[in-house]
Specification:
Residues 57-115 form the Helix-turn-helix domain. Pfam families: HTH_animal. The chain has ten helices and eight strands. The chain has helices at 2-11, 67-84, 88-104, 109-120, 144-154, 167-171, 206-218, 226-234, 252-265, 283-291; strands at 26-29, 32-36, 44-48, 134-139, 157-162, 186-191, 197-202, 244-248. The strands form three sheets. Strands 1-2-3 form a three-stranded antiparallel sheet. The chain has a three-stranded antiparallel sheet with strand order 7-6-8, with helices on both faces. Helix 5 links the parallel strand 4 and strand 5 (157-162). Helix 2 crosses helix 4 (109-120). 15% of the residues are buried.
Length: 298
């Protein structure tokens, strides 16, 4: 095994290869611990494997969540134990361990026992159950939400609870948004590591157009994008996140002319091709507009 591991490392230095050997006749694989029965060498046993960093922390019973969520946690732990345990003795040991974990997370013993009993002996009422006519999603508020759910059941409406204020909703939107990415009808620029820019125009949101350019580069479609051709011809890297708007113009004809004007005025700093013909005699007038800030350049 060590020889094979060394061969894999030598064949590709960038590839990550890690060899893990069994200890005490045990070897973990994902969330399963595979054990070798010493008395019967041909027999392997499996049970739930937990990493050393596992803290046994789950949703606390006192948290502001509906009971169905807490029952779901118990069911997921039970189902995994049943699936992984290779015999009844191991399964019973795992069930005892689950009960201890839930006790540490403030789950009442009676609630756990009742939930496990419901899991092991599910009611057979699928024949009388009707499909809900519609769904209703409401914030979970203790006691009030349960009443609304019972009211919805009378009209065959399925009620789904949601939690509004969570750490995820508070902490995952702290990064400022780039408003340029949602703008439409604009002339835009995308910088390259070489210091030059690609200049183009689009009637759609800028982020949609940028994604198209990324796909052109990825798929080697150099005939559809001068940006892709520049990347593949020179091996440069594009700074996609720095794509920005030069100027907005809702009129298609004017937007094409302004795009060509920006390309001509920045001929030494861009690698774009004109899509609209613009006579060179207009350049002095365009330069005047630049000086008067009526037309932007890089």
């Amino acid at each position: 095994m060590e020889y094979l591991n060394n061969v894999l490392k030598a064949s590709n230095g960038d590839a990550y290869s890690n060899l893990e050997l069994e200890e005490n006749n045990k070897l973990p694989f994902l969330d399963v611990m595979v054990s070798k029965n010493v008395q019967e060498t041909s027999n392997l046993q499996t049970n739930v494997y937990r990493k050393k960093t596992n803290t046994n922390r789950y949703l606390n019973f006192d948290s502001n969540h509906h009971l169905s969520v807490k029952k779901g946690i118990i069911k997921s732990l039970y189902d995994r134990a049943k699936l992984v345990s290779s015999n009844l003795n191991i399964f019973d040991q795992e069930k005892d361990h689950i009960k201890n974990i839930l006790k540490e997370n403030a789950y009442p013993e009676g609630f756990v026992e009742k939930t496990l009993l419901q899991i092991e002996n599910p009611p057979n009422n699928n024949q009388n159950r009707q499909n809900p006519t519609s769904n209703m999603t409401i914030p979970y508020i203790p006691r009030i939400s349960e009443r609304l759910k019972r009211l919805g059941n009378e009209f065959n409406i399925r009620t789904i609870f949601k939690t509004n204020n969570t750490l995820r909703s508070i902490l995952t939107h702290t990064k400022p948004k780039n408003k340029d990415q949602n703008e439409k009808n604009c002339i835009y620029k995308i910088p390259c590591q070489c210091g030059k820019h690609y200049i183009g125009e689009t009637s759609r949101p800028l982020d949609v157009r940028v994604k198209e350019h990324k796909n052109y580069v990825r798929d080697y479609q150099v005939d559809r994008s001068h940006l892709a051709k520049h990347v593949w011809d020179n091996g440069h890297q594009i700074n996609w996140k720095q794509a920005s708007i030069i100027q907005k113009e809702p009129n298609f004809g004017k937007r094409k002319l302004k795009e060509s004007a920006c390309i001509k005025l920045n001929v030494n700093n861009c690698f774009s091709a004109e899509t609209a013909s613009l006579n060179a005699t207009w350049l002095p007038l365009l330069q005047k507009d630049v000086n008067n800030k009526k037309l932007k350049i890089l």
